[in-house]
Specification:
The structure is a single chain. The protein has 381 residues and is mainly alpha-helical. It folds into two domains: 61-138, no CATH class; 141-381, MetI-like (MetI-like fold). The chain is 73% helix and 0% strand. α8 packs antiparallel against α14 and α9 (180-192) crosses α12 (234-261). It is globular and about 75 Å long.
């Protein structure tokens, strides 16, 4: 009887999983294996236009991978990598030391001075080892430039996601705020609007004759004859795509943080107030630690999504402005660069290898972040 019951149970589970497994197979696994096979060939646009395109491909082994990383294994590049690792080493040591200081402590100690020392050591090493020259050597490689820029894009966006989301969530969680439902609905609109509509609206804002320049001119901040070229200047264009991504992503974090805030027991704040804790101490010693289990998974998922951002960047800047032929644009991230190489240059085999390397990097970064943050620990306990 138990055997029959167990067989029926597993049959139901398998039947429920079949649609999902089928979708994963056809939408993810088969394209991944096809791309992996493509990365070892010289497939390009010309071979695809031929009548027997598949037979026109030639196996080139690891040539595409060697092309991607060739400039990163030269003596100068290896030395530059070593310098940058040494420069960042103090921050790694400080992170480990700070985690040990706060581990299993009911009241976490103040680690600000420790982090300040780590940042100071990093700055000193950067100046002593001439980190600027080391970075310039590495930025001669398109693959490294795109990868570094995508990483910086994530680094710039994530703190503002958290900061804006936390500030708005704290305001909406205040019992003195009236019409909370109205404000919550209003603030979540940027997340609800389709991303391509938002991107096109912001693209219009950033034009030379767009809304932002017109506002500046009406306030006499800007000369009408010399508007700010937001999308033609590399730094301003990068700032623009960061700003738009913050606008579209803060409601996600605001919603998560607001829900987590409402789950914190009120008696914890009452006890802290009785002990003489200030608002800042309550925020840093109670609110933020209690928000960690809810926020960390969102940070990991949002980091991966931001790293793979395509539609917003492409609709606003198309990866530009471009500084030269064959070089990635000032706002080319991994997805826009892959799109450009695939559909404009037709380098299918090359970009297949590029996609494989990016997949491995993202997988490693995800596993490392899950290990460091322990965001999935509760699922297995």
């Amino acid at each position: 009887m138990n055997t029959t019951h167990g067989w029926k149970k597993w049959s139901v589970i398998i039947l429920l999983l079949i649609p999902t497994l089928t979708g994963i197979t056809f939408v993810n696994l088969i394209p991944m294996f096809y791309n992996f096979r493509l990365s070892f060939t010289n497939a390009d646009r010309l071979s695809h236009n031929g009548r027997d395109a598949a037979h026109a491909w030639q196996d080139v082994g690891l040539q595409n991978y060697q092309t991607l990383i060739a400039e990163l294994v030269t003596p100068a590049a290896v030395a530059s990598f070593a310098k940058l690792i040494i420069v960042l080493l103090p921050l790694v040591v400080v992170n480990i030391f700070a985690r040990r200081m706060t581990r299993n402590k009911l009241v976490p100690p103040d680690t600000r001075m420790v982090w300040l020392g780590g940042v100071a050591a990093t700055i000193i090493l950067w100046l002593v080892l001439n980190g600027g020259d080391a970075l310039n050597v590495l930025t001669q490689n398109s693959f490294f430039v795109v990868l570094l820029r995508s990483t910086l894009y994530v680094i710039f966006c994530m703190p503002f996601f958290l900061l804006v989301g936390l500030v708005l969530a704290l305001i909406l969680n205040n019992p003195d705020i009236r019409f909370k439902s109205f404000w919550r609905t209003l603030l979540i609109i940027p997340w609800a609007v389709p991303t391509f509509i938002t991107a096109l609206i912001w693209q219009f804002f950033f034009r030379d004759a767009g809304t932002i320049n017109l506002v500046f001119q009406s306030l006499n901040i800007q000369d009408p004859k010399s508007p700010i070229h937001w999308l033609s200047n590399p730094q301003l264009a990068f700032f623009a795509i960061v700003l738009v991504n913050i606008w579209m992503s803060y409601p996600f974090f605001m919603t998560i943080i607001l829900g987590a805030l409402q789950s914190i027991p009120a008696d914890m704040y009452e006890a802290a107030e009785v002990d003489g804790a200030t608002w800042w101490i309550s925020l840093t010693r109670i609110t933020i630690p209690m928000l960690r289990p809810a926020v960390l998974p969102a940070v990991v998922l949002s980091s991966i999504t931001t790293f793979q951002m395509f539609n917003t960047v492409y609709l606003i800047t198309q990866g530009g402005p471009v500084s030269g032929v064959g070089k990635p644009g000032a706002t080319d991230l991994v997805m826009t660069y892959a799109y450009s190489q695939t559909f404009k240059s037709g380098n299918y085999g090359y970009i297949g290898a590029f996609a494989v390397i990016i997949f491995v990097i993202l997988l490693a970064a995800t596993l490392l972040s899950l290990r460091v943050t322990n965001v999935t620990r509760g699922a297995y306990e």
